[in-house]
Queue: 3 jobs
Job 1
Amino acid sequence: MNTFKKAVLLATVLVLAACGESKVTKIDGTSNGTADNSFQKMIYGMPSGESLQWELDIKMLKSRYQGDEFAKRFNGKTLEDLKPEIADTKTHFIKINRERHAATEQQEIDKLQVKLAEFEAQGESNIKYVMIAQTKARIDMYTKSRDEILALSDEQAWNTFGCGCQQTDYKPSGNFNTSKY
């Protein structure tokens, strides 16, 4: 009889478990709201560090694919399906940020080149040579900074600039491992 009670108890537990809510495994891209809802259900119950990383990755994807494009693009995708897109989006933002920061340094170099030409065109004076020397030093500083930005590896650029997404506060975690994607 004891075995019979255990069997009935086990059967009851299995029936109750089967009645529970099914696990969402794919993004429902019907709308942005359903995509967000299904994504939240997919990461529910994950360890907090893992779910936080997924939330940040999704914010980054949403910054790249805005509006309905996010929901449409990832409709029917699993978390595993998103990994290559996350890695590609990371590379996309690294390239944009590297170019943006290098361009900012180049703009300063260009402004200083104009000032240098103006100083060199001035008549003879002691201040002229001081201004020329200071301007050349600043040009060298910005040139070095620009060249260092362009020489950064992707991982160094990511750790320095992060996503740079305009719609998010996504900052580099310092532990984004592209080898897992």
Job 2
Amino acid sequence: MGFKDHAGDHKTFGLWRAEDLLAKLNWERALLAELEGRSDDNAIFAALNGCATAWHLTEWTWNNLGPATRARLAFSVVRDLEIYVLTRCPALRLCRLIGNGGKHHTLRWNDPEIFSTKRLRVHVETTADGRLIGGRLTGWKLQVVDGNKGTDASELLKTASEYWEAQLAQFRAGPGDHNCR
């Protein structure tokens, strides 16, 4: 880190490379785990930010790939890279929708089968014959639901982080003029 922005076109507090944003994603994952473990509602902020970061790594990666690397990978526009990662990492599709939903509030394109929720854990007390007599909240997990499948937000961000770590290493391994170091 520690990039001096002489041109004035980078407003990122010194973050410059895709690996810097990956470090931010991993920090958000750790924060989510800590806050969710304490049932702290601020975990929602960490999950929302983590999803946005995971998706925006696409744009950061694009900007770190030089023309020779983009040509080798047959990427002519950023949309080519977006399609590439979306077909290889389904977690990024969910991160894209949640992250953009958090940024823009309402999406122009939407998949109504996908939503985010807080899944409550409740301890239920019943009589010997099964009648409900009470219960208490024991905690909760943030979850992204896609159709009938729910994924904990922490697992979603872990999958996205692991994908990006491997993908950035793959881009670094090939010849080209990239700045994914």
Job 3
Amino acid sequence: MLDKKELNLISHYAGIVKEVFGFDMCLIGGWAVQYYANPPATLDFDFLCDAKLFDLAQDRFEFSRVYPILKFDYGFDVKRTEEPELVQLGFPVLWLKKDNIRVDLFGADTAFRKSVLANAENIPGSDTRVATVLDMLSFKTISNRVKDRRHFNILKKQYQLTRAQLTEISDNANKEMMERG
């Protein structure tokens, strides 16, 4: 569960992304898990953005338009994933870093990711949206790192998932992995 200070921090970074890019987006990753439960906090913010993010990152003219805003107006170091195969594997399209904070921007380029963006819920008291619990569990299944398995178990226990919900999570993860190749 997030406190007011954490919600303000999320809203701050989400606001920057919305202002600079103007894309539909939602919070995913560790901060989204923390919104629903109480795992250890993370220092990076992960946002799933409209698939237009891919075009912007690859278009030199568009990227050169947003880069100085991010760099000079907001003080971010900006890195884009140059290798399309890494993006295909699910890596962030853009990384923004400032001090000890990193903001990872992922694109909604698959059917599953588009549905995550469409199903995202509003965070009360904020203009930021967050992926649903079931969608977060699907992401955690796909990533399957030690911390992802820990997050999965925390959410599974807290939400007492049914067999049908677990099947849906598994199906979503399988579809995403198949589409990613």
